[in-house]
Amino acid sequence: MTKTNLTEKYRPHTFGDIVGNTKIKAELKAWAQTWKRIAPAWKGFNSLDKNNELIRGERGFRPAMVMEGPPGVGKTTCAHALAADMGWDVIELNASDARNRTRIREVVTRGALNQVLSFDDDGSFKSYQDGTMTLIILDEADNLYDRSGDDGDDKTEDFSDRGGKDEIIKAIQLTRHPILLIVNNWYKLMGPRGGALHQCTRTVRFREPTKEMIKKVLGRILTGEDVNATPVVIDIIAARAKGDVRGAINDLESLMIGRSEITSENVTTFDRHRDKKKKIFDVLKIILLEMDMGRAIKSLWEADVDMGMVQEWIAENIPRIYTNRDELARGMDMISKADVFEGRIRRRQYYRYRRYVGQLITGGVCVAKKHRHGWSKMQFPEHIKNMSRSKRKRRVQRTLARKISQNIHVSLGYAITVFVPFWRIMAKSDNRLVFNTIYEMGLDMNESAELMDRDNVKWIWKQYLEYQKKRISDSIGASSKKISAAAFDDRKPISGHKSIEETAQVEVLSRIPGTDGTSKPIVPKTDAVEPLIPKIDDYPEPESSDEGKTRKKEKKDNQISLDSFF
Amino acid sequence: MLHIVGKVETFRELVDVVLTVVEEVKLVFNPEGIRIRTVDPAHIAMVDLTLGKEAFEKYEADEMEVGLSMNKFSKVLSLAEAGTEITLKIANETNEVVITFGNLERKMILIDTANLTEPKMPDLKLPATITVQAHEVRQAIKISMDITDYISISVDENRFILENSGDTGSAKLELLKEKLEELECESPITSMFALDYFSKMIKSIKKSELVRMHLGNAYPIKVEFTIAGQNGMVTYLLAPRIES
């Protein structure tokens, strides 16, 4: 904080001063006291069975607590007040700090395992065994910018929070001190790989304080600052805040500058509403449970996620709410109609259709039902979960398709929809085809594994690398030109065009099991190795084209990196 | 106003010590010298450093507090060859430090010192004191790496033991009283510390220096040594690890 503003000045420092949220305060307090009691013998969450006796009777005790709630309701204040009440030291990591793996390890994990330098006034050390603990606070923990964490070879010193989540989980599992995670959006925190985090945490949800509570807080500040304000003013500010105490105080502060009295005229310049985003659940509630079409359509613009996401949420949750068959059918029909428009937008790049999409998924779905529905549990869209799970696989498929599309001169989309599936069927038992595809298109291990099962591919790769090694040792020069050109030539039988010169080769090849189409598919494990490689080498040399030369060069580049697979 | 000229080695020693604990630090200048006192973000290690004006070729300073990024300063220093004279200047009423050496000049905006708190140094009473060559401890740490992430230190009337034992093996340094420069111990003590912190701290000490350690039973360790040819004094405090 640069200057003490009112929020800082009137921030409550003990639990007693905090308005509202009584239940949460009680839960936090109980959690803290449990921690204090068990701390000397606690061995960490991951050795829970050793600690079983300790937390008997403390149902659902977890080493870390997640505080969820909208901005400005007092989560951070509560965390600090808790520490103050318990006499604990505080280690804090904010969104303004870089929070990558290293940083979290340095501050959180380290703090979680060691005692802290904490001293009495006479200079004697307050040890952990005597109950001196630290409250580790991770503010805005849902805003970790956490890229997948496993592609960690980016050397640039960055501000991303890569791997941060994994490190937090580790810290929570090991910690000997209480940890608090403060978030606005619980789902965002849990997100991918959230299961482990879910297991070792417990969540408290802060509710927005009522208008009356905010008025109480504002009144206290006005008295403290010796400023007069009419009740109407307080009422307007409190109503406008919609539960955001910090927002209300900031509004009040801006009105107070240079005034000792605030009248309703000063407030007229204010918008009646602070911009506040509705949570997805509230939006879903309006659309799926209530009958007001107008509100349903409007609710989309207040949602805190974008339209595509709202659509996913609605599509996921319609079947949970619309139990009547006809309603369900109509609802899903609306979603599909919206999807048709999505398609038109994409194809024609005509974004004005978005309004239809928006209205169909909100208003349309809303009026698909005949009467109001009761609340039932809503879930995060399964589709998105699956997509994020299959991200890696899809990426590999895409690169494979790209290589195919470049080599056989079709569009990427065509390669994905037509060629990859057929290629897969053709490759199923055809080692030669896979070998040639790898060679021709410069596939890597993962991409080729998309074409056939991994054991077979490994075997082929072994052959391929041996062949490459042999090629190097045979000294590149003329012979390599022959090989690359010959390999290039190979493609013809695959695509079905046979020239007269080739018939001879095809005969040779047909001796290799699994390549002639008549013999049974082979599972090569042992000595079928021999014929495959030398035969390619023996091919006659067709006229070498320029294309062949550039290809050779590409191959050489690939080949160096390929060795690292084995 | 600030105008300091000193050998690059002097500055490096200072930076190395501070960087073991924090990256940004508040330096307190007065006409007699520099003082730094800071604690790491996890509140486990504290460092207190004083550097007298004798350590520098030229030293003129008013009473002032300066916030500086040690990381950036260290990068600048790494460009200077051994023995280079570095000049640090802060003019009155400005918010930047000017670092010059050779033909190079680097201006650095100072950090707001309001957020860089200065902890209180407690007056710890510790029952055991030993003094040892820094390189002996260094060796012990090097051999202890890759076993566990903590190290235990024990002292009794006759010996000083640094030990690290885990599932995959153990390592140990044992020094009898005769091998030590100093050993005072009222009753046998043992404490455990985080190895990464301890090793960083020891690595910032020159090999040839003597290190004095004050210890207690499951208590913080206090490590004292001199820098810049006896002209500077460093005190580290490191909190013990929670016994498992």
Structural account:
The complex is a heterodimer of chains A (566) and B (244). Helix content of chain A is 56%, strand content 5%. In chain A, the strands form 2 sheets. Chain A has a 5-stranded parallel β-sheet with strand order 2-3-4-1-5, sandwiched between helices. Chain A has a two-stranded parallel ribbon with strand order 6-7. Chain A has 4 domains: 21-205, Rossmann fold (3-Layer(aba) Sandwich); 211-267, Helicase, Ruva Protein, domain 3 (Orthogonal Bundle); 280-379; 391-545, no CATH class. By secondary structure, chain A is mainly alpha-helical. In chain B, the strands form 3 sheets. Chain B has a 9-stranded antiparallel β-sheet with strand order 6-2-3-4-18-17-16-10-14. Chain B has helices spanning 8-19, 70-77, 134-144, 195-203, and strands at residues 2-7, 24-30, 33-39, 45-52, 58-61, 64-69, 85-90, 96-101, 104-109, 128-133, 150-155, 159-166, 169-176, 182-185, 189-194, 210-215, 221-227, 232-238. Helices cover 16% and strands 47% of the residues of chain B. Chain B has 2 domains: 2-115, DNA Polymerase III, Chain A, domain 2 (Roll), CATH 3.10.150.10; 128-238, Proliferating Cell Nuclear Antigen (Box), CATH 3.70.10. The chains are: A mainly alpha (566), B alpha+beta (244). The interface between A and B is medium-sized, with 27 and 29 residues.
Write a short abstract of this structure.
The complex is a heterodimer of chains A (566) and B (244). Chain A is mostly helical and 566 residues long. Helices cover 56% and strands 5% of the residues of chain A.
Characteristics of this structure?
heterodimer, A: 566 residues, mainly alpha, Rossmann fold, Helicase, Ruva Protein, domain 3, five-stranded parallel beta sheet, 26 helices, disordered C terminus, B: 244 residues, alpha+beta, DNA Polymerase III, Chain A, domain 2, Proliferating Cell Nuclear Antigen, nine-stranded antiparallel beta sheet, 18 strands, 16% helix
